[in-house]
Design brief:
Strand content: 15-25%
Structural class: alpha/beta
Largest sheet: 6 strands, mixed
Helix content: 40-55%
Radius of gyration: 22 Å
Distance between the termini: 80 Å
Length: 207
């Protein structure tokens, strides 16, 4: 390679309309496999994608770096951005719960008690939203499309439902309306924090 700094791998990915970070992963995996004569672990590859300076070949390290920083859809940089946005919305949800004087147990507290799959917040006293009882709330700083929602149902939401009862999922960037079809079974979808929360205290005061 005459110019080691030239973004050859990035240009190749763009030319074949392939995500740069995924292209970098494939090339890096093949490089490590040939060098170590064994299939590298996913954790090992992810570590090098996050920090290309760990890659033993300087030219390849530069190529991988250029791919990861110029990928707007995949890769460690995008993952960091998504994580930051997700955390920001969890903090926002926490503040809204506190503002409504709703007692809750946060995800980190639940994990400290030994739970593996947990929603972001479990309400210590259930509330009603649009006539549905809610025991937990999950924050999703994304748009709820069919593919991602079905994956979340299988990997997370039904597990929460089995363990903690019915709950609410907030897709802060909206969702496909037809996906909100499990209300009667106990999973409610919203695109904002509900304004019509009925608490046990409020219900008893109306009697």
């Amino acid at each position: 390679m005459k110019n080691a700094a030239a973004p050859v791998l990035l240009e190749l990915a763009n030319e074949v309309d392939f995500a740069p970070s995924l292209m970098a992963r494939i090339v890096l995996e093949r490089f490590l496999q040939e060098k170590e004569q064994t299939i590298p672990s996913k954790t090992f590859i992810n570590s090098m994608l996050r920090d290309p300076s760990q890659i033993p070949d300087g030219v390849l390290a530069n190529q991988v770096y250029q791919c990861t920083v110029n990928d707007c859809c995949y890769g460690p940089l995008v993952d960091c951005i998504k994580h930051a946005i997700g955390h920001e919305h969890e903090v926002l949800l926490r503040e809204m719960l506190l503002e409504k004087n709703l007692s809750f147990i946060a995800e980190d507290q639940l994990r400290a008690k030994g739970y593996d799959k947990t929603p972001d917040f479990i309400l210590e006293v259930p509330v009603a939203v649009e006539g549905h009882i809610i025991h937990w709330i999950e924050s999703k700083a994304s748009f709820g499309d069919e593919s991602s929602h079905q994956a979340y149902l299988q990997d997370q939401f039904w597990s929460y439902w089995n363990r903690f009862g019915p709950g609410l999922v907030i897709y802060w960037y909206g969702f496909i309306e037809e996906l909100d079809c499990h209300r009667e079974r106990g999973i409610l979808l919203k695109d904002c924090f509900p304004t019509d929360i009925v608490t046990l205290r409020h219900s008893m005061a109306q009697r």
